[in-house]
Amino acid sequence: MESIGFLMQGFGLALQPENLMFAILGAFLGTLIGALPGLGPANGVAILIPLAFTLGLSPETSLILLTSVYAGAMYGGRISSILLNIPGDEPAMMTCLDGYPMAQQGKAAEAMAISAIASFIGSLIATIGLIVMAPWLASFALTFGPAEYFALFVLAFATLGGITGKNPVKTIMAAAIGLIIATVGIDASTGTQRYTFDILELYEGIDFIIAIVGLFAISELLFFIEENAGEGKPMIAMNKMKLKMKDIVAILPTAFRGGVLGFIAGVLPGAGASLGSFISYTLEKKILGKKGNFGNGDPRGVAAPEAGNNGAASGALVPMLTLGVPGSGTTAVLLAMLISLNITPGPLMFSQHGDIVWGVIAALLIGNVLLLLMNIPMVGIFVKLLSVPPKYLLPVVTMVAFVGIYSISHSVFDLYFMVAFGVGGYVLRKLEIPLVPVILGMLIGPEMEKNLRHAMQLSDGDWTILIGSSLSITLWCIAIAGLVLPVIVGPILRRRMGAAKATTGV
Amino acid sequence: MNDRIFGLLMLTLAVAYGWGAQQFPEPFGGAESIGPETFPTVLSIVLGLSSLYLMLRPDPSNGWPWNRTGLEMVCAIVVLCLYTALLEPLGFIVATTFAVGTLCWRMGAAPLKAYATGLIGGIVVFALFNFVLELPLPLGILEVA
To answer: What are the DUF112 domain coordinates in residue numbering (chain A) (predicted)?
Structure first.
């Protein structure tokens, strides 16, 4: 139970006035980012990273800020699901199913409150899970050698496409592209220049922050222009809330189950928040069966997916913090932040930067309480901001991206690079090549090469060391399963999710 | 069709990249079991094989917007490049008014409202960065000598 002691220290850190202030700011911005369609959590966190740098925040404060944004985005996603019938972010898709019908019946405020409570419960359960599981997993990961790490990184890529991913070959390609970009620059261990073409700016390699902001923010702008979605959609007005204690109690078991399922989906490689909310909704429908009124505005149909996706969001932090292997786009962006702060994620992080890890976990707990407070009485503010049409919003977001990147280095070259990555990101998305493996490749490329190098030095050039231990063989097997399973199971799951989507007429 | 073309491009990249890796000078201190070229070589093989697969078994294509929308997108990219180019000479506020304003306008806002958004956004961010955060942004032509 030494975790409790560490957690108390973490609270000490997270409750410092400055950190608390940034947690509140992060929670607010996060909810907003989650709520606005066209500004997903990965995108929002990416845009805020350069700002955290230029503000000169300490590593723990920056991380607390971004984790709060991350947690907030998961709350925010529901707002546009309920009022607009368009999910603010992908995991909030299932919330549309019952949230929008509730709003149509004039119960928007109740749907908001119930989903906020469910989100809170889901996050709380998953954060407790994180506290229990993370130190255990971290100490297990200490037994990993370089060969096991190499296999683990391969596993991370293989499962990133997710069980619902379409074409695993495209995931592999995306990973290779990202890793290739990561090799540009001076090789850290031999000093050899690789693919620098004698351009000075390339000597230090390509800054992944610039790439991430370009890939997400700029390509999103292009997508909105293409879809001609500048006007926004009609919104249902909020009503006065008449929520009774009885209604809250009624959804508690649902929220509890959703949180646990979500956490499991979040921890497992290849599942993620979207699947978390999908599973908890489907299961709830199965359990309650005819007793429920699912699809026509059942409050439990709002609670289940929200608890599920918030649970998954906190669960996804487990592999990211303990193994340095993110399972989703947003956690990949958080990993980018860690690497830029010179903190190597992974099992050693718990011993070397224990204060930061526990500070972040404590901040997650505090953030959730803040978010619950923010999301029930103050939901009206977010609703007002939601009515800003994308035609104004996206250009302003683009400006923020420009300012952020410019203020890191004051380099115009970087801005051109960002635009180029944006155009590249648009083309890749058009070809249905996932962006997250590209980013992950850029992030863990150097680490992956280092582990390969160490492994090969240990074995004196014998490639079989990569499959030399039972642990690494297991990891390789999971990786292969991660690529093969989607081909078999994927179409079935996708069809079900598609069918669920179709019934709401989204 | 898209996948085939992209596969071909990536195959070319893989070959060029892999060939480039073989040209690295031998690092100081002699060759080791694994040099700077090993990892890139592995990557070029992975990329090469997957792009070959993509060319042989392409997915159905998404259509490209070869119409006015496409033109609008090219416009947006040009605006972003101009924004970058003009940021320092014209200064942040003027460049932002132009860039954000044009983007809003092209996305369907009324011109006056669009440029007002750009101007207000530019001034607010400029003030925030220069006075609150003390991170100077270029003032450009607005600078009083």
So the answer is: 20-440
Query: Minimal CA–CA distance to A343: which of A361, A358, A321?
Result: A321
Residues A180, B40: C-beta atoms closer than 8 Å: yes
The one-digit pLDDT tens for each residue of chain B (145 residues) are 788 899 999 999 999 999 988 888 776 665 566 778 889 999 999 999 999 999 988 888 777 777 788 888 999 999 999 999 999 999 999 999 999 999 999 988 899 999 999 999 999 999 988 888 777 888 888 776 5
Question: Residue with structure tokens 């699901």?
Answer: A81
Residue with tokens 């699947």: A275
Domain that holds residue A377: 2-140+148-504
Show the CA angle centred on residue A184, arms to residues A412 and B55, nearest 5°.
105
Q: What is the ipTM of this complex?
A: 0.91
> Which is higher by pLDDT, A502 or B107?
B107
CA-CA-CA-CA torsion sign (B93, B94, B98, B99): negative
Q: Give pLDDT tens digits for A170-183.
A: 889 999 999 999 99
Residue A410 neighbours by CB distance under 10 Å: 13
Which CA distances in Å does A451 have to A196, A437, A455, B19, B35?
23, 19, 6, 23, 13
| B84–chain A Cβ distance below 8 A for any pair | yes
Helix (H, G, I), strand (E, B) or coil at A340: helix
Q: By the CB < 8 Å criterion, does B9 face chain A?
A: no
User: Which residues in chain A are closer than 8 Å to B65, comparing Cβ atoms?
Assistant: 226
- Positive or negative, the CA dihedral A25, A26, A29, A32 is negative
**Whole-angstrom Cα distance, residue A259 to residue B84?**
45
Q: Dihedrals φ, ψ of A324, to 5°?
A: 75, 20
Give the closest of A218, A228, A457 to B33, CB-based: A457
pLDDT in tens, B5-44: 999 999 999 999 999 888 887 766 655 667 788 899 999 9
CB atoms within 10 A of CB A69: 32
Q: Do B36 and A432 touch (CB under 8 A)?
A: no
Give the residue on A whose Cα is nearest the Cα of B43: A176
Q: Residue A240 above 80 pLDDT?
A: no
What is residue B29's predicted lDDT score, i.e. its pLDDT?
A: 61
Helices marked H in B23-91: 38-56, 68-90
Indicate the DSSP class of residue A467: G
SS3 of residue A387 by DSSP: coil
Domain count across chain A = 1
Q: Determine, for residues B125 and A400 on separate chains, whether the beta-carbon distance falls below 8 Å.
A: yes
DSSP strand pairing (A185-186 vs A193-194): antiparallel
- How many angstroms separate the CA atoms of B82 and A269, rounded? 42
Q: Report the b/e string of A246-278 with b at 16+ CB within 10 A.
A: eebeebeebbbbbbbbbbbbbbbbbbbbbbbbb
CA distances A84 to A35, A70, A386, A456, B50, Å, are 10, 22, 10, 55, 40
Q: What is the pLDDT of residues A349-370, one digit of tens each?
A: 888 888 888 888 898 899 899 9
Distance (Å, rounded) from C-alpha A490 to C-alpha A271? 12
Q: Tell me which residue in B2, B69, B80 faces A431 most closely, judged by beta carbons.
A: B2
Contacts of B109 in chain A (CB under 8 A): 230, 389, 391-392
- What would the two tokens of residue A316 be? 């996804």
Q: pTM value?
A: 0.86
